[in-house]
What does this fold into?
Amino acid sequence: EVQLVESGGGLVQPGRSLRLSCAASGFTFDDYAMHWVRQAPGKGLEWVSGISWNSGSIGYADSVKGRFTISRDNAKNSLYLQMNSLRAEDTALYYCAKGDQDSSGPFDYWGQGTLVTVSS
Amino acid sequence: EIVMTQSPATLSVSPGERATLSCRASQSVSSNLAWYQQKPGQAPRLLIYGASTRATGIPARFSGSGSGTEFTLTISSLQSEDFAVYYCQQYNNWTFGQGTKVEIK
It folds into this structure.
């Protein structure tokens, strides 16, 4: 059974940093692209960042480019999102999602999310 | 950036009726289009990918069509568990539509 478990969310002040983690199991992690998607309270889904199986291809939404860094550790079956210079508008539930073996593909499994609240 | 526009924002449908949801891309995405269902308090679930292929375990009452810039998700006979928010997503660079809420009429 595929499982994605996010952690690392919490309350943080504007301008500070936070690192999210996603622990994956139930599939061959290093065969698949992985993504972060967020959802602000009461709002829709926003793709944040994605990384190919070997970290050779990485992308970011314009809204987070230069502030967020995605990475993965295939030996630990883990995905990460380093979030710097956080803003109030980064407040959201952050989902980890499993992509395709091709770097371009839909998201067939999602975690339950970790909540990030940016507020003073 | 490819902008995805869904219509309508809200669709009121009676159980057993057909629901038709639309999604338009600002430029061609070929068939690189997925549909997701999200219920309150839950993560999204993949319904359709490749514009028309049902994901594993998705009932046959869900069908997708279209290519290029115009796409449709059809739920042939709405069941109580189908009332939810539906998102389209193009996966050339993964942008989502704003969602269509399907509510009970």
